[in-house]
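Table 4 source record.
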Amino acid sequence: MKHINFNSIKLKNFLSVGNDLVEVNFRTGISIITGINKDKLDRRNGVGKSTIADSIHFAIFGETIREIPKGNIINNITQKGTHVELALSITEGQKVNHYKIIRTLKPTKCFLYINDEDKTESTIINTTNRIKELLSASSELFQNCVIMSLNTTLPFMAQKKVEKRKFIEGILKLEVFSQMLQVARTEHNDVLRDYESTNKELVHQNNYKEITVKQLEDKKEENDNRINRCNLDIDRKNKKIIILQTQITEPDLKLVVSIREKKIDFDAKISEIQKTIDSFYLKVMEYEAEIKMYKKTYNSIGTELSKCPVCLHEISSDDRSHIDEEKNNITNDIKARQEDIKDIYVQINNLKDRKSTYISESDKCKSFLKECLAAAESNKRVKSTIDDLKEEIIEINKEIASINDTTNNYNELSNQLEKYSREVTILGEQVETLSKNNKILEFVKFILSEEGVKSYIVKKILNILNNRLLYYLDKMDANCVCKFNEYFEEEIKNDKGQECSYFNFSGAERKNIDLACLFTFMDIRRMQGDVSYNLVMFDELLDSSLDEKGVELVLNILKERVDQYKEGIYIISHRKESIKESSGEVIYLEKTNGITKRVEYNN
């Protein structure tokens, strides 16, 4: 099992947090994140409590849970220097590795350190993918197993059937079967298409074969009579043919082969150069597309109005300066791409020069081969001249030509028949093989389908999943039961045994179901031997929907998880009375003049 322990999060100039560093060291127990908004008298909303959860998600996935545009993630007062640093350790077996993830905005960077060694990938996307691979989590899974934000994340049971199915398959690590099924379907369609095409070609070749057999029989019958009359003259005719052949001069075949090979080599080089040129042109198109994108971005930045048409915020001189800076950066990017395009065209021209050289050499080889062909034609003319000179040879050759024409036609048909027979045999074997493969892939598709091995595996796991779900619903005194079938379709029944929809229940009742699903998925991942996290974060868990009894039951479950799994549970709350539930620490935030800071909590 992979144990992932989140150690700390540090952030500054992130959302409402300003230039003063806010740091949270994650601890075992139930901790409360709360605070006060001094910009609004006696208010605890808008303090920046959810910023802690958003910063963890941002560090891992490069975006916030609330999907805030990156331009708005930067603190709107400091306007620069966004820095989020997440420290964690991963234990696999006896091996422990320490990781540090740093993401910044202005400039936009992402760094990954493993045991204090820089392991950052070549691009931010590649680094993010490496981080997700290390944590064995997608954003959707993370939001349903680690951070549950009631106001910004769509609860699992409220998602569409396809999304729920995909998520559970990810929890149970069954998505590989869906991927294999897609591959099998593609291969089956390819094989079926090849089978139909090959079988159609087999029918055509069989028809050609039958037609050729009939032509061959007719031609043989016709030729037999002529050959019988000509047998007496065959010896004499052959001697005459030999005499004529001795007068023909044959070209140097080795030289012809060598020249032909050279031409092939030149043509291959020409083709290779052309491919390289084409790839450069594609690169030019990519850069031109980027320039268009930059220009589009440039045109979309800023406004001439005194207020922002989107948020109605007064456009300050700092905003104008920021807009001009962004436009200047885009202009520089466009110039850089234009220089890249110029460099590529220089390389293209060099390649064209080399290509012209090879074309010239290829044309020389072509000219030589053409001369050889002309020599062969000359030999034919010599034969014709000899025939013209000797009347007797002319007469004999006419007879031979007549017989040879007939024989050649006969041989041509025989060769054609042999060719069709080979094609029929080969196509027949191919059709048989494709038919077998088609049946195999049909079986594979069934095995990988919902009714196949996946259903078998799911049935083995389903009782555990449903039992854990019922366990948590019972622990929270929910007035419903919920279970999934092997197709991950849920069935919810109320306390009267009537089947209901998730949306038939009240907000508190739905919250019980959501929390039961959350706890269940976390347990299943742990039971799968896959991955466990030491951190769970709930946004406004105690602030809405649940009554006092509901809060007590949920807290009992959380305390049980702390005792059993040594989890660090962080509850974001704007209710002051939530502080008494803390068995860990109280992270107290204070917002003054639009800037959030962490301050020491005093009872």
